[in-house]
C-alpha cells in the first residue's frame, strides 16, 4: 500500500463525510463496544468458573465468544477513536494489521457458527456427540481456515486498504482488479454462502427432528422456544454479514466501485454488530448456562439484566423432551 495514496484517500473521505456523521458513528461504536464486551466477558467468566460447562459444545461457543470479545474490545475501540478523529489514525502498517486481525476474527466467527450448527445437527438428528478433544481439534481447524484467508492479502492475493468511510481498514471490497475480484468472490462463496447453507440445513433438520418427536400438545412450548432461537441465530447471521457480502458481489457484477462513502459505511456498521449477538442468543436462552449464571452472578438476575427461565416445571419439561432426543442431551439447541 502506497503511503501517499493512503493519505490522499483519508483526506478525500474526510471531506465527503461531515464530521458530525463520524461522531455519530463513534458513539454507535462505543455503545456496541460496551454491550458486546460486557456480554462476552460474562459468558467467558461463567464458562471458566463452572465445571458443568466444560463440555465440547460449550468449549466451541466459548471460543466463539473469545473471538467476539477481541473483535469488540480491540476493533470497536480503534474504530471509535478513528471516528472521533474523523480519519484513520494508525497509518499504513496499522491499517494492514487492523484489516488482518478483523478479517481473521470475522471469518473465525462465521466458521465456528457453522461447525456449532453442524455439531448440533449431528447430535440431535443422528444422536451422536463429539468429545472435548474433538472440539479442540475442530476449533484449531477453524482457526487455520480463517487464518489462511486473512493472511492471503499479505501474500499478494488482493490487499488490505482504507475503507470508503475513511476510518476503518479491511479487504479491498471496492477493488475491480482481478486479484481483488477473485479474493472477494472466494470469500463470498467459501466464507459466507457455504457456511450459511450449512447453518440453514442444520437447523432446519434439527427443527424437523424435534417436530417429529412431539407427542403431546404441551411440547409445543418447547418447539416455539427452539424455533425462536433458530430464527434469532439466522437473522443475526444474515443481518451482520449479508450487507458486506452483497456489496462485494454488487461491485463484482456491475464493475461499479463508485459508491458513496456513507452508503459503503452501512455494511461496516452491520458487520461490527456481529460480536453482540452470540452471548445473548446462545447463552441467555440456554437453561444450563442460566442456572450457572444465577449461581455465580446473582446480581444480574436481581437487576433484571439476565434472562432466566421462569419456573422449574418448564425447565423439567425441557429436560424431559430433550431426553426423548438423546440420553446425553443438554438443554442447549
From TrEMBL:
One Pfam family cited in the UniProt record for this chain: 7tm_1
Matches recorded under CDD domains: 7tmA_Opsins_type2_animals (cd14969)
Molecular-function GO terms, alphabetical: G protein-coupled receptor activity
PROSITE patterns with a match to the protein in the record: G_PROTEIN_RECEP_F1_2
Entry keyword set: Cell membrane, G-protein coupled receptor, Glycoprotein, Membrane, Receptor, Transducer, Transmembrane, Transmembrane helix
Topology class, membrane: Multi-pass membrane protein
Compartments, record wording: Cell membrane
GO cellular component term, pick one: plasma membrane
Residue ranges of domain G-protein coupled receptors family 1 profile in the record: 39-282
Official protein name in the record: Opsin-VA
Native species: Magallana gigas (Pacific oyster)
Biological classification of the source: Eukaryota, Metazoa, Spiralia, Lophotrochozoa, Mollusca
Amino acid at each position: 500500500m502506497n503511503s501517499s495514496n493512503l493519505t490522499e484517500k483519508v483526506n478525500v473521505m474526510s471531506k465527503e463525510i461531515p464530521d458530525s456523521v463520524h461522531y455519530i458513528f463513534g458513539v454507535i461504536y462505543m455503545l456496541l463496544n460496551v454491550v458486546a464486551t460486557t456480554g462476552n466477558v460474562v459468558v467467558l467468566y461463567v464458562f471458566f468458573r463452572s465445571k458443568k460447562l466444560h463440555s465440547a459444545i460449550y468449549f466451541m461457543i466459548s471460543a466463539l465468544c473469545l473471538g467476539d470479545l477481541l473483535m469488540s474490545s480491540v476493533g470497536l475501540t480503534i474504530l471509535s477513536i478513528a471516528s472521533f478523529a474523523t480519519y484513520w489514525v494508525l497509518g499504513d502498517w496499522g491499517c494492514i494489521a487492523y484489516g488482518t486481525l478483523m478479517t481473521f476474527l470475522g471469518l473465525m466467527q462465521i466458521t465456528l457458527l457453522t461447525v456449532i450448527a453442524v455439531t448440533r445437527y449431528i447430535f440431535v438428528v443422528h444422536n451422536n456427540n463429539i468429545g472435548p478433544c474433538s472440539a479442540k481439534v475442530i476449533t484449531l481447524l477453524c482457526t487455520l481456515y480463517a487464518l489462511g484467508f486473512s493472511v492471503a492479502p499479505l501474500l499478494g492475493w488482493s490487499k488490505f486498504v482504507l475503507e470508503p468511510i475513511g476510518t476503518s481498514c479491511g479487504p479491498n471490497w471496492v477493488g475491480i482488479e482481478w486479484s481483488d475480484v477473485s479474493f472477494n468472490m472466494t470469500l463470498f462463496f467459501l466464507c459466507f454462502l457455504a457456511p450459511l447453507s450449512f447453518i440453514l440445513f442444520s437447523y432446519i433438520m434439527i427443527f424437523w427432528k424435534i417436530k417429529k418427536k412431539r407427542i403431546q400438545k404441551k411440547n409445543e412450548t418447547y418447539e416455539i422456544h427452539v424455533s425462536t432461537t433458530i430464527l434469532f441465530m439466522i437473522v443475526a447471521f444474515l443481518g451482520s454479514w449479508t450487507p458486506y457480502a452483497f456489496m462485494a458481489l454488487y461491485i463484482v457484477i456491475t464493475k461499479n466501485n463508485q459508491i458513496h462513502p456513507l452508503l459503503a459505511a452501512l455494511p461496516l456498521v452491520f458487520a461490527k454488530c456481529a460480536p453482540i449477538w452470540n452471548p445473548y442468543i446462545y447463552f441467555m436462552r440456554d437453561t444450563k448456562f442460566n442456572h450457572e449464571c444465577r449461581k455465580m452472578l446473582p446480581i444480574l438476575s436481581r437487576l433484571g439484566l439476565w434472562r432466566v427461565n421462569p419456573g422449574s416445571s418448564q425447565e423439567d419439561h425441557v429436560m424431559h423432551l430433550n431426553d426423548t432426543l438423546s440420553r446425553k442431551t443438554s438443554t442447549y439447541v
